[in-house]
Amino acid sequence: MAKPKIAIIISTTRAARFGEKPAKWIYDIASQRDDMSAELVDLRDYPMPFFDEVASNAWVPSKNEVALRWQKKVAEFDGYIFVTAEYNRGVPAVLKNAIDYAYPEWNKKTAAYVGYGSVGGARAIEQLRLINVELQMAPMRTGVHIQGADFMAVWQQGKDITELTYLQANAKDMLDQLVWWTNALKIARDADSKK
Ligand SMILES: Cc1cc2nc3c(=O)[nH]c(=O)nc-3n(C[C@H](O)[C@H](O)[C@H](O)COP(=O)(O)O)c2cc1C
User: pTM to 2 decimals?
Assistant: First the structure.
């Protein structure tokens, strides 16, 4: 079976964002594995307006050009790692907007999470897990959370995430789960497509 294709989604877009650092960190770890192929996907490359279609693309094809390009990109992958902050204890609006702009493209695929912030993005990630279920996705149990003093050290004091060595085992655990579930769902989707 071909290696599963995993998108690592940089889920914040503001000019001063921190998000690309943890995204590149997990990308480097994922790229060293031979059981998946990883690609960074940056929401900055998909500047969509606040949702302005007549319906979800589950029901009516979208008109917005960037949204169509985004849907095509999402469709390329078998699973996704959302690298996210939390904004006021929730999912960053730009990420939720991007998620809402696709539907069938997410279905029967996997979701994993790398969060950062005072509590490692945990509250946003719990919300994301619920959102992902509505999109007919399988959310992974284990997330990676860069939090507390460690987050402050990498965010404000120039510490490198690779120095947080305990995160390595945590990331491996999450990626192992992601590969298992992604392969299982890929086999099931392939069987469906042959019916
Ligand atoms: C609008 C806003 C709301 C925030 N709310 C939270 C929060 O609820 N919890 C938290 O841990 N950090 C919060 N922060 C701080 C972020 O963790 C920190 O700014 C982080 O760098 C944001 O991710 P980004 O740089 O990728 O945009 C908030 C930041 C912003 C800009």
Answer: 0.98
Token readout for 66 is 């960037």
Residue 185 amino acid letter: L
- With a Cβ cut-off of 6 Å, ligand 1 is lined by 12, 14, 17-19, 85-89, 117-119, 155
- Report the nearest atom of ligand 1 relative to the CA of 20: 26
Strand 144-147 relative to strand 110-117, pairing:
parallel
Band (195; pLDDT cuts 50, 70, 90) = confident
CB of 10 closer than 8 Å to CB of 39: no
**Atom from ligand 1 closest to the CA of residue 85:** 23
Strand segments, DSSP code E, in 16-164 are 37-42, 79-84, 110-117, 138-139, 144-147
